[in-house]
Specification:
Elements lengths: L8 E3 L2 H12 L9 E6 L2 E6 L2 H12 L38 H16 L4 E3 L9 E4 L9 E21 L2 E19 L5 E7 H14 L10 H16 L1
Antiparallel strand pairs: 1-2, 2-3, 4-5, 5-6, 6-7, 7-8
The protein binds nickel (II) ion.
C-alpha cells in the first residue's frame, strides 16, 4: 500500500493526455476514461479515476484544499516500480504455494499500479515482490485484465520482431525478437489452473513479463553498446 498526497493536480481532455503520453510512453499507452495528472514527490504522474473520485478531487480543487493528513485520499494502492539497473530486478521469483487473501490483495495492487503507470503488463519482480505473478492487459479499452500465477510457457513456433518498452526502463523502446506463438499454463487470480494460447502482442507481453520473473529484462536482448547507452541515460536522468 502506498498513500500519496496530491500536491498539484490538473485536468486535461483525454485526447490531449493521449497525445502527450504517446510521445512520452509510446504507442500502447492510451486513455479511454478520464484521467488527471498529479505531482508526487516532484515527479509528474498520471492516473485514471472513477466518477466518485473525480467529484472528491474537483471539490478539493474548488476549495483549494491541499489534500494532506486529514484530507488525504487513499485513491489507489500504487506500488513503487523498480528501475533498471536496480539489482533487485535480477532476483529470480519463487512459486506461489496457494492463493491467499494477501496474494489476492497484492494482485489487485499490481493491476492498479500497471493501469496507473500506464502500462500493458507488470511483473511482481518489478515492485520488489519476488513471487511468480504477472498481470497483463493488452485490450484497447484497458478492461480485460489477465492474471498469471506460476506461469510456464511452451513455445509453439514462429518468430516475430516488435518494439518493446518496459515500466522499469522508462522512455526507451527497442526492437526485440520473440516467439510468435506460445502456450501458457498458469493459475488465475482465484488459484484455478488454466491454459491459454497466444500470438502477436499478447504473446510478446507474456514472454516479456515471464522474463522479469527470471530476473531478465528486454535490454538483455540488445547489444552491450545499446544497453550501456540506456543505462547511462537513465542514471544521468536520475541525477538531474
Ligand atoms: Ni517490463
Amino acid at each position: 500500500m502506498h498513500r500519496f498526497q496530491m500536491i498539484a493536480y490538473f485536468f486535461k481532455p483525454v485526447e490531449v493526455l493521449n497525445r502527450e503520453t504517446r510521445s512520452l510512453c509510446g504507442p500502447h499507452h492510451t486513455f479511454s476514461t478520464e484521467a488527471c495528472m498529479y505531482q508526487d514527490k516532484g515527479s509528474l504522474k498520471l492516473f485514471k479515476f472513477s466518477i466518485a473520485q473525480k467529484s472528491i478531487i474537483l471539490r478539493a480543487c474548488e476549495l483549494n484544499l491541499k489534500l494532506d493528513n486529514k484530507n488525504e485520499l487513499d485513491l489507489m494502492s500504487l506500488l513503487t516500480i523498480l528501475e533498471y539497473p536496480d539489482s533487485r530486478l535480477r532476483t529470480v521469483a519463487r512459486n506461489v504455494d496457494r492463493v491467499t487473501t494477501s496474494v489476492s490483495n497484492f494482485v489487485e495492487d499490481l493491476l492498479e499500479t500497471m493501469y496507473a503507470a500506464p502500462g500493458i503488463g507488470l511483473a511482481a519482480t518489478q515492485v520488489n515482490v519476488h513471487k511468480r505473478i504477472i498481470v497483463i492487459d493488452v485490450s484497447a479499452e484497458h478492461n480485460e485484465p489477465l492474471v498469471f500465477i506460476n506461469p510456464t510457457i511452451e513455445v509453439l513456433g514462429g518468430m516475430q520482431t516488435s518494439e518493446e518498452g518496459c515500466l522499469s526502463v522508462p522512455g526507451f523502446f527497442e526492437q526485440v525478437e520473440r516467439s510468435e506463438k506460445i502456450s501458457v499454463k498458469a493459475w488465475d487470480k482465484t488459484g484455478t489452473r488454466f491454459e491459454l494460447e497466444a500470438e502477436g502482442l499478447l504473446a510478446v507481453c507474456i514472454q516479456h513479463e515471464c522474463d522479469h520473473l527470471e530476473g531478465k529484462l528486454f535490454v538483455d536482448y540488445l547489444s552491450g553498446l545499446k544497453r550501456n547507452r540506456i543505462r547511462h541515460r537513465i542514471q544521468k536522468r536520475r541525477r538531474t
